[in-house]
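Checklist before submission:
- one chain only
- standard amino acids only
- sequence pasted in full

Submission:
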Amino acid sequence: MKTVLLYGDSNTYGTAPMHALGESRRFDAETRWAGHVVRALAGRAEVIAEGHPGRTTVHDDPVEGAHRNGLTVLPAILESHAPLDVVAIMLGTNDFKARFSVTAADVALSVERLAKLVIASVAGPGQGAPRLLLIAPPPVVEVGCLAPMFEGGAAKSRGLAPHLRAAAQRQGAAFLDAGAHIAVSPTDGVHFEAEAHARLGAAITAALEPLLEDQPRC
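Returned file contents:
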């Protein structure tokens, strides 16, 4: 059986749209997009959902904690779950918080840095590299309780998908634009409603299936 790692932030974890800061509601496993992938690939792949709320691509968060740096913890996660046939990365949303002052191009380059780490790892079958799927999260919207935190992020996040598509091409990775399938909740402008989780799960499953086929590796 194949093994797939889903590496992401609160939207992989399954955080429900927030009405107020400090809420910590999480959709159940049946509702989360990762859960839809688990069920769709049952019998063909073990799916590991590694989502951490607040996770960034490469940044130590000065407010929410340095442990949310996705680059720092990724090597240990790759080693602990090896061998991995496919690694799917959906990160970048938290980079658009005002505190980081980054551009869409910078966020794509940060995801590409994670991709390079996966490619250089020996976490795949036969101590090779896992196949990669890079997923551009849907753009954020400055609304609700998270609007001040993401001030200026909405416009910047709308430019991420084309930059990340180019990064995926450079690294020989598959690419999916989640924003072509879903939008963020109008409640907090960052997280997904239950229906969006279902649609995204189906789209990601479709993107993963060809990567799970046995074929010669480059």
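Reviewer check: Residues 104-120 form the longest helix (17 residues).
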